């Protein structure tokens, strides 16, 4: 088996043969990755944590299905791997995903040709330190420029919406229906159904106020949920759901104009407007819940994370961050609730169920024995016990006459 040369920081100088380990998010090869194996990952903008995990297992090489750096985030993962002497290859492409089989033998040529058995399967590109350094510098410059623009927009938003953010000026009045209650804000997304299913027990236990953001109102209706409020452009919600029992709130421009108001009027549906410098239904829904004294605000979908902001600053909305800061300690992502309601079986629980089963069995035996004879319950039970005792004694002879 070919060994890597520690400290070279370049691609392998000779052909590598080793065991393939599927270390992508879908695979479980990282736990089995050992010295001399060839690791396959799917980690665009590879971060330091994953690189350290790989280095500790001393692979012969790491093949990334994605670019080690997209030029968006200045991450240190590829630097650490190269400094540890691990040859890097990238951009094989997602079409190889279906061909990866953990535990198979693979040959990796210095030029990046991958061969499984005798079949040439794909071509990866060797990654050099010069490429990594150049991409890092580009990403660093771009990140600084983008974040400067983002926080400039944030300051502008605060300047124009300070009355709303501080005192809720302009937010529609909803009464006390939200006060001191748990609120679930549901946003549209590919995993909305799965995430709602994950908090099903929470929904049943607390019956929270449901605010549907945008087209999530349609998804909730299909799942059997009836939202209390819909914050959306009417064009994103079916007429049937708009005519339901939910109170409809339209995102509006700061001057009060609400796109879709004509459709609402044509449907004969009453609606309120929420004028703000953002048209994000999710952010407006969070602000509504915060302004009306919700006890807890659970968001389903549309997460706001620093890594996401760094990676997609062009579409980062200052209102998303500020709305969650306004909600403060009240806001929590639905994945946290899902984890709290997931109970892993333990040996103690298993023993409890086993003991309960024995007690139920004993109770049934007593009941059958007591009711199975012609005498009273006590007589039947005593007779059955005597029979059982005599049978057990016959299994163990006393040894008389020896």
Which structural class matches the secondary elements? Answer: alpha/beta
For the record, the count of structural domains works out to 3
Alpha carbon gap, first and last residue? 73 Å
Q: Give the strand line-up of the largest sheet.
A: 7-6-5-1-2-3-4-8
CA gyration radius, whole angstroms: 32 Å
Largest sheet: 8 strands, mixed
Short précis:
With 402 residues, the protein is of the alpha/beta class.
Report on this model:
This is Thiamine pyrophosphokinase. The chain crosses the membrane at residues 350-371. One of its GO terms (molecular function) is thiamine diphosphokinase activity. It comes from Corynebacterium lujinxingii. It is a single chain. The protein has 3 domains: 16-127, Alpha-Beta Barrel (Aconitase, domain 4); 181-340, Rossmann fold, CATH 3.40.50; 347-390, no CATH class. Helices cover 41% and strands 16% of the residues. It contains 14 helices and 15 strands. The strands form 2 sheets. An 8-stranded mixed β-sheet has the order 7-6-5-1-2-3-4-8. Strands 13-12-11-10-9-14-15 form a 7-stranded parallel β-sheet, with helices on both faces. Strand 11 (229-231), helix 7 (239-242) and strand 12 (247-252) form a beta-alpha-beta unit. The relative contact order is 0.08.
Sequence-ordered SSE layout with sheet pairings:
Elements: E1 16-22, E2 38-41, H1 48-56, E3 61-64, H2 77-83, E4 88-90, E5 105-108, E6 113-116, E7 119-123, E8 125-127, H3 129-167, E9 182-186, H4 192-198, H5 200-206, E10 209-213, H6 216-222, E11 229-231, H7 239-242, E12 247-252, H8 261-267, E13 271-275, H9 281-291, E14 296-300, H10 306-311, H11 318-327, E15 331-333, H12 334-340, H13 347-371, H14 377-394
Parallel strand pairs: 1-2, 2-3, 3-4, 9-10, 9-14, 10-11, 11-12, 12-13, 14-15
Antiparallel strand pairs: 1-5, 4-8, 5-6, 6-7
């Amino acid at each position: 088996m070919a060994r890597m040369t520690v400290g070279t920081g370049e691609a392998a100088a000779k052909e590598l043969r080793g065991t393939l380990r599927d270390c992508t998010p879908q695979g479980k090869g990282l736990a089995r990755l050992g010295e001399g194996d060839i690791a396959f990952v799917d980690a665009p903008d590879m971060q330091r944590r994953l690189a350290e995990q790989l280095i500790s297992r001393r692979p012969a090489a790491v093949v990334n299905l994605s670019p080690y750096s997209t030029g968006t985030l200045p991450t240190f993962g590829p630097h650490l791997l190269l400094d540890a002497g691990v040859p890097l290859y990238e951009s094989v492409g997602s079409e190889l995903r279906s061909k990866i089989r953990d535990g198979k033998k693979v040959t990796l040529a210095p030029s990046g040709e991958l061969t499984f058995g005798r079949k040439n399967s794909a071509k990866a590109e060797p990654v050099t330190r010069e490429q990594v350094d150049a991409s890092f510098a580009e990403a660093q410059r771009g990140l600084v420029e983008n974040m400067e623009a983002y926080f400039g927009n944030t300051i502008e938003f605060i300047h124009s919406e300070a009355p709303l953010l501080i005192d809720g000026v302009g937010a529609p009045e909803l009464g006390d229906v939200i006060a001191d209650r748990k609120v679930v804000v549901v946003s549209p997304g590919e995993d909305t159904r799965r995430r709602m299913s994950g908090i099903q027990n929470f929904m049943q236990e607390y019956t929270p106020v449901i605010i549907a953001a945008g087209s999530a109102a349609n998804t909730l209706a299909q799942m059997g949920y009836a939202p209390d409020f819909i914050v959306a452009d009417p064009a994103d919600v079916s007429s049937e759901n708009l005519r339901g029992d939910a109170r409809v709130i339209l995102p509006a421009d700061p001057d009060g104009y609400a796109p879709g108001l004509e459709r609402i009027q044509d449907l004969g549906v009453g609606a309120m407007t929420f004028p703000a410098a953002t048209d994000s239904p999710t952010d407006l829904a969070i602000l509504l819940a915060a302004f009306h004294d919700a006890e807890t605000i659970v968001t389903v979908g549309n997460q706001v994370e620093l890594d996401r902001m760094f990676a997609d600053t062009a579409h980062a909305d200052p209102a998303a961050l500020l709305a969650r800061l306004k909600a403060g300690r009240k806001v929590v992502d639905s994945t946290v609730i899902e984890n709290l309601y997931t109970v892993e079986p333990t040996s103690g629980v298993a023993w409890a169920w086993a003991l309960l089963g024995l007690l139920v069995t004993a109770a049934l035996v007593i009941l059958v024995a007591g009711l199975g004879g012609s005498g009273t319950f006590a007589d039947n039970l005593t007779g059955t016990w005597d029979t059982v005792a005599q049978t057990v004694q016959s299994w163990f002879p006393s040894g008389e006459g020896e």
